[in-house]
Write a structure and sequence with these properties.
It is built from 19 helices and 18 strands. The strands form five sheets. The protein has an eight-stranded mixed beta sheet, with helices on both faces. Strands 1-3-2 form a three-stranded antiparallel beta sheet. Strands 15-16-17 form a three-stranded antiparallel beta sheet. α1 runs antiparallel to α6, α2 crosses α3 and α17 crosses α18. β16 and β17 form a beta hairpin. 38% of the residues lie in helices and 24% in strands. By secondary structure, it is of the alpha/beta class. The radius of gyration is 27 Å and the shape is elongated.
Length: 519
């Protein structure tokens, strides 16, 4: 991409940015939008587009009349060669700008886009993301300086990041600017950094005319914002776990194993304002020497923070290496892939890596008057399927843990609670092998049917006590005493176990304190 070596603040980084505003205006006119594509392709062929099936999308477009939107889909999504005069009629002077910047290739009477421009509905706004062309629609191997568009990881981080109003936001390693788009209307100030100047070129084009004022700063890790603190930090860093090498700048940090994630966690803590939060994607090693939970907990300060670490997936070393080599469009049967697989697995074996986990890390810095409190760190696996955005759940988790920090044993006993609407009580039974007929109950479970669908196995005592909770009814202690009397149990003996069970249910939001319902 052509870049000016020194650019005044009032000027753009690249010719692409100069063309981006014109392109976006034209896209709105012709319906090259999320809804426009959905309407012309329909659900089946939209699914084919997202699954990387260009022939299926092309088959459908061939059955439709020629139109500006049809041409746009061929040029920007399929990256087909299209006639120059048709593309010029569609884009006007912007085409010449893109050709001069070597972003569109002319061959005879035909033109082909060398980059991706995709419409996405993000934070309720129609946006367009500019990035390098990926390999989903065109057969090629992305280069080492490749800049990603919207992928599964960036979408998951969007869903896991709160969009509530805040002051200052840092998007560390912004790439093509996707996470900034998710903060539309939420932040008073946004700084987006990246070590890769090409990424900032694309981010600027993505953000032009987006309505999101953003300062783009080039630099490595937290160096561009050294000495500054923020109310919200977002990061999808190059966290691939492997040897300390950089093969692809968008995913390789040059740091050994999971040191990139460790660095971002530690530095994010140091760059948060009191009350501020960080929302990170990361990966970590599973080893025989310690649990992954202990490993990640060691990256966090001993005092003054709350952290919720959620492992969404964990794979073996062989699976991990194969996944990332395939990500490069390498044929895993090739000699190159075989050599790199062997070297990568040897490195893992020497480091005693037994697996690699991946997931979300949410961190909150406590207020100044809580700075000496022991950090509250929960690291757990979330293997269940869920669709609801995780961002609101993370904010509520911090609210729930803040309530718990203020409680004593006596205050919990004197409080009132409510079972979250939608919590299901499940009785799991299995075929009775001993009797040869019927079913025998094996598990009693309370499960959320919203958010992350947390599920807790409980006994009959806890299930019955929870059923008696009412935010306008009796305090928890009186419910325990009534239940103990009905069951012929010593009431005091129920307290400790019931409190422990209740705290766990509050952490995962199955039970809510009445105090929070009123606030």
């Amino acid at each position: 991409m052509l870049r000016k070596k020194k650019t005044p603040m009032t000027m753009t980084r690249t010719p692409l940015t100069q063309a981006a505003a014109t392109l976006k205006a034209r896209f709105r006119e012709i319906g090259y939008t999320t809804s426009g594509i959905n309407n012309v392709l329909g659900p089946d062929f939209v699914a084919a587009m997202h699954a990387g099936q260009p022939a299926a999308v092309r088959f459908h477009l061939d059955s439709l009349p020629e139109s500006d939107l049809n041409l746009a889909l061929r040029a920007f999504v399929l990256r087909d060669q299209v006639r120059v005069e048709k593309l010029a009629a569609l884009l006007g002077e912007a085409l010449k700008t893109l050709v001069d910047a070597a972003l569109v290739e002319i061959s005879g009477e035909y033109a082909q886009f060398l980059i991706d421009i995709r419409p996405h509905l993000i934070a309720g706004r129609q946006q367009w993301v500019f990035s390098d062309a990926d390999a989903s629609m065109t057969q090629h191997v992305p280069g080492p300086d490749h800049v990603l568009g919207v992928g599964a990881a960036s979408l998951s981080l969007l869903q896991a990041t709160p969009t509530s109003p805040t002051g200052s936001v840092l998007d560390l390693g912004t790439g093509s600017g996707i996470q900034v788009l998710g903060q539309a209307g939420a932040a008073q100030e946004i700084i987006a950094t990246d070590v890769h100047p090409r990424a900032l070129d694309f981010a600027e084009a993505t953000l032009v005319d987006s309505g999101i004022p953003t300062q783009l700063v080039e630099g490595s890790w937290f160096e561009p914002v050294r000495g500054r603190t923020f109310d919200r930090i977002i990061a999808n860093p190059p966290f691939v776990v492997g040897p300390p090498e950089i093969g692809n700048v968008y995913r390789d940090s040059g740091l050994d194993l999971d040191c990139a994630t460790a660095l971002v966690v530690k530095e994010a803590c140091a760059h948060l304002n009191p009350g501020g939060t960080a929302h990170l994607l990361g990966a970590w090693v599973h080893s025989a020497d310690q649990s992954w939970q202990q490993r990640v907990a060691e990256w966090l300060p001993d005092n003054g923070y709350v952290a919720w670490v959620i492992e969404r997936d964990a794979v073996s070393p062989a699976q991990y290496v194969g996944t990332w080599l395939s990500d490069e469009s390498l044929d895993l049967r090739s000699p190159e892939a075989a050599a790199r697989t062997t070297a990568w697995l040897n490195h893992f074996e020497k480091a005693k890596v037994q697996g690699v986990g991946f997931g979300f890390i949410a961190i909150q810095r406590l207020e100044e008057d809580e700075a000496d409190e022991k950090s509250d760190i929960l690291a757990e696996s979330m293997t269940q399927y869920f669709e609801d955005p995780l961002g609101p759940e993370i904010e509520e988790y911090f609210t729930r843990t803040a309530w718990l920090r203020e409680q004593t044993r006596d205050s919990i006993l004197s409080s009132r609670f409510k079972v979250r609407p939608g919590v299901a009580r499940e009785q799991i039974s299995l075929a009775d092998a001993e009797e040869g007929m019927g079913f025998s109950p094996v598990t009693l479970r309370l499960t959320r049917t919203d958010g992350p669908r947390w599920s807790h196995d409980v006994d009959e005592h806890v299930a019955s006590i929870v059923a008696g909770l009412n935010p306008h009814g009796l305090p928890f202690e009186e419910i325990l005493e009534m239940y103990a009397m009905a069951q012929g149990i010593e009431g005091e003996s129920l307290h400790n176990g019931a409190i422990a069970a209740l705290v766990d249910l509050i952490r995962h939001g199955l039970v809510l304190p009445a105090d929070l319902l009123d606030s």
